[in-house]
Design a protein that fits this description.
two-stranded antiparallel sheet, alpha/beta, 60s Ribosomal Protein L30, Chain: A
């Protein structure tokens, strides 16, 4: 599946994200629910934004794989981080797991999550072949 990444020349270009994406006609849409830095045992992994971002992205990748997709099929991600968190540390961690597959993103600071140990939550929308 080829998602078109839009980065207009008169806008800032970032290696971490695209300004927009276009999903091909006839695609099925996969909505990946909010993923936190929780390991397979259900426990929070680490107490840093880096550790939890890496695990949350591994969880997104696991859901994508279950649907036969990869990060290249993701058209949009929403990243929620705890207020006061260094977003650059999260971006650095994402490169380690997500790789150079920038997609359209929204990053929002929130005051809290359902579990007070959570520092990040990531959801995604992916386009799958029809």
């Amino acid at each position: 599946m080829t998602i078109t990444h839009l980065n207009p020349p008169d806008m800032h270009k970032s290696p971490a994200f695209s300004q927009g994406t276009i999903v091909p006609a006839g695609s099925r849409i996969l909505y990946v629910g909010g993923q936190n830095g929780v390991g397979p045992d259900g426990k929070v992994v680490g107490d840093t934004i880096q550790a939890q971002t890496e695990q949350a992205l591994r969880n997104v990748l696991a859901v994508l794989a279950a649907a036969g997709a990869t990060q290249e099929d993701v058209a949009k991600m929403n990243i929620h981080i705890i207020e006061g968190t260094d977003v650059n540390a999260g971006f650095g961690a994402s490169l380690a797991v997500w790789g150079a597959n920038p997609t359209a993103i929204t990053v929002v600071s929130v005051p809290s999550f359902a579990n007070p140990d959570f520092l990040v939550e990531i959801d995604a929308i992916a386009a799958l072949p029809g």
